[in-house]
Amino acid sequence: MIRVVLVDDQPLIRSGFRALLDAEDDVAVVAEAGNGEEGLHAVRAHLPDVVLIDVQMPVVDGIEATRRIAADPALAGVHVVILTNYGLDEYVFHALRAGAAGFLVKDIEPEDFLHAVRVAARGDALLAPSITRRLIDRYVTAPPPPAAGADLKWLTNREREAVTLVAQGLSNEQIAERLVISPMTAKTHVNRAMVKLHARDRAQLVVFAYESGLVAPRDR
C-alpha cells in the first residue's frame, strides 16, 4: 500500500487529489495539511511513501519543507513531489536541489497523476526527458564551481555513463538497452552512483550531472 500525505493550502485541491487517490486499491491518503509546518508534522507522524506538497504556502513553503524532509535521516524513505500551477515556474529547480523527487502540474490528467504517484513511490524521478532539458536550459546556465566535479572521481566509467543517461531522462530499462547490459545491472550502476554521490533519488542525480559539468546544458 502506497501511503500519501497531501500538503496544500487550498482545500479544494486537496479534496480533489484525495478523491482520486482514495479510489485506488493500492494507495491510501494518511494525512492532509494546509501549510508546510503542518505538513512536516504529518510526515514525521505518518512516515508516508510519498508527500505531495504545494510550493507556495503560508508558515513554511514547499521548498523549505522539502529541504527539512531531505535533511532528516528518519525520513530517508519519504519521496517528495512538488505541486505547481505553472510547470516550469521559478521554484521548480530550487525544489529539486532541495531534495524533491520531481514535480507535477496541478492540471495533470487523473491517470497521469496516479501513475506519477506510483513512480515516486518506487523512488524514480518524475522528470520526462523534455522537462529535464527545459529545466536545465533555463536554470543551469552558469559554469559549475571549481570543486563541483570532485565527486566524479569516485564513479566508475559505467556509473558515469549511467548518471549521464539518467540526466537525459532515461529509465533503467532504457539505460540497459543503450549500454547493452541487463536492466538489473543498469539499476545497480545507478544505485551505486546515488550512494557515492549522496543522492536521495534520481532527481538529485540529474541536478548533480549538470552542476558537476558531467553533462553540459546545451548538449544535444
Poorly predicted runs are 141-150
**Spatial order of the strands in the main sheet?**
2-1-3-4-5
Main sheet overview: 5 strands, parallel
Would you tell me the overall average pLDDT? 82
**Alpha plus pi helix count:** 10
* Helix vs. strand class: alpha/beta
Strand content: 5-15%
Task: Summarize the helix and strand pattern as letters.
Answer: EHEHEHEHEHHHHHH
Tell the overall outline. globular
The rounded distance between the terminal residues' Cα atoms is 40 Å
Brief write-up:
Helix content is 48%, strand content 13%. With 220 residues, it is an alpha/beta fold.
Structural features, described:
One of its GO terms (biological process) is regulation of DNA-templated transcription. InterPro entries: CheY-like_superfamily (IPR011006), NreC/VraR/RcsB-like_REC (IPR058245), Sig_transdc_resp-reg_C-effctor (IPR016032), Sig_transdc_resp-reg_receiver (IPR001789), Tscrpt_reg_LuxR_C (IPR000792), WalR-like (IPR039420). Residues 3-121 form the Response regulatory domain. Residues 148-213 form the HTH luxR-type domain. The chain has 220 residues and is an alpha/beta fold. Helices cover 48% and strands 13% of the residues. It contains ten helices and five strands; from the N terminus they run βαβαβαβαβαααααα. Mean pLDDT is 82; it is low at 141-150.
